[in-house]
Amino acid sequence: MIVLGLSSGTSADGIDVAAARLELDADLVRLTPLGHRTVPYPAGLRQEIRGALPPAATTAETVCRLDTRIGQAFGEAARLGAGELADGRADLVASHGQTLFHWVEGTAVRGTLQLGQPAWIAEATGLPVVSDLRTADVAAGGRGAPLAALLDVLLLGGRAEPAAALNLGGIANATVVRDGAPPEAFDTGPGNALLDAAVRRVTGGRADLDADGALARSGSPDPALLEILLAEPYYRLAPPKTTGLELFGPDHLDAALRRAGTPGDGDLLATLAEVTAVTVADALRPYGVAEVFASGGGTHNPELMRRIAARLHPARLRPFDTLGLDNDAKEAYLFALIGFLTWHGLAGSLPACTGARRAPLAGRLTPGAGPLRLPEPAATAPGRLRVDAQVP
User: Fold this and answer.
1) Residue 143 has pLDDT above 80, yes or no
2) Of 63, 167, 190, 286, which one is least surrounded by beta carbons within 10 A?
3) Where does the signal peptide begin and end (predicted)?
């Protein structure tokens, strides 16, 4: 079947849409990428989302309005994707939505909230929608993250040397796959979140990111600020673990700056790039990985990638697209895969990676224009993922 995956990360940059042809053959999943695109949020909506994200206070009215407007925006993105990427032949939409809050207490996740009412997506496309992809794992005692581990483990399994997948979104997460050992996955800490918060701070909100890493490249890490930031206890928690803007938001940066003082703009950005590089490398070093495959928005920051590569050495840092999936669309393809598995009665997360007691089916189903007609549940859980090139 052809599945559309929809995603918007913690940076709320826009809606990523990816179309995939998926087929299940015993324990092998075949995924053929049909294309992807990023659809910007409508004017003003991104600012409204950012204004409601932690540590901001919000209201039930705002949550209702955002749930509706994000759902409508996702519906329009899915409609465009169905036509442009799937030639009108999509069978299913899998929507992650926009995370508003991830309720973490210590090492436990108590709840998670993604906005983007799926009824609007079903109405816009006529297709059934799988949404709310994290909550079942949380209800089963897991952390609801990193869900990317499912795709990473299926794709990286069977390699001769230990390998890791690294996603550099607002929060960075990693999956480690080693022959003969259970997989492990965890959020390492901030990816782009602190960098983006600093750019908004130094530009008075005129810019959201350090284009091409120019500011970070112009400075040097400030030793006092770096020491304070790296003292955060989260980095020393054992996996599985997850975090978000609730911890690594603008308040986290402001508190550190009050203690260390505020360095020059270039030094501030260089310090924050070094924080991401150090925490990623420190998290992966115990596993002896030989290769790290990176995806996400942070891969477009050459200075961040340079620092991560230097800290990871002798492990090789490579783009995720060498595995057949575009760096910028990995999570959208992930959610397409999870939706496909749910449709076939298969679990959408890995307890070894999320800490759940069991592997639950992910999400909830919203009918499209017609009644739901699900296939017989698959008899075999997938053990491998193969990315096939699209035939012209």
Assistant:
1) yes
2) 286
3) none
* pLDDT on residue 205: 86
Question: For 264-289, what is the mean pLDDT?
Answer: 98
pLDDT, tens digit, 9 for 90 and up, residues 6-56: 999 877 889 999 999 999 999 999 999 999 999 999 989 999 998 999 888
All structural domains of the chain with their residue ranges: 2-148+328-387, 153-323
* Two structure tokens written together for 50: 């950012």
| pLDDT score of 226 more than 90 | yes
Binding residue positions for ATP: 9-16
Comparing C-alpha atoms, which of 101, 123, 105 is closest to residue 113?
101
Which CATH number is 153-323 given? Answer: 3.30.420.40
Distance CA 133, CA 242 (A): 16
Query: Would the CATH topology of 2-148+328-387 be identical to that of 153-323?
Result: yes
In contact, 7 and 364? CB cutoff 8 Å: no
**Which tens digit of pLDDT belongs to each residue from 51-82?**
999 888 999 999 999 999 999 999 999 999 99
Q: What is the dihedral of CA 311, 170, 358, 367, to 10 degrees?
A: -150
- Three-state DSSP at 165 gives strand
Q: Read off the pTM.
A: 0.94
Environment class of residue 28 by beta-carbon count within 10 Å: exposed (0-12), middle (13-18) or buried (19+)? middle
Q: Tell me the sheet residues that pair with 174.
A: 166, 186
- In sequence order, what are the residues at sequence separation of 6 or more whose Cβ sits closer than 8 angstroms to the Cβ of residue 45? 69, 70, 73
Picking from 149, 170, 152, 145, the residue whose alpha carbon sits closest to that of residue 301 is 170
- Residues at the binding site are 9-16
Residues facing 33 on adjacent strands = 20
- Residue 388 makes CB contacts below 8 A (sequence gap 6+) with 30, 31, 32
Is the CATH number of domain 2-148+328-387 3.40.190.10? no
In three-state secondary structure terms, 133 is coil
Residue by residue, DSSP assigns 184-251 as EEEEEEESSHHHHHHHHHHTTTS-SS-GGGHHHHTS---HHHHHHHHT-GGGGSPSS----HHHHSHH
Helix (H, G, I), strand (E, B) or coil at 286: helix
Q: Can you read off the two tokens belonging to residue 242? A: 């997850």
Distance CA 159, CA 179 (A): 7
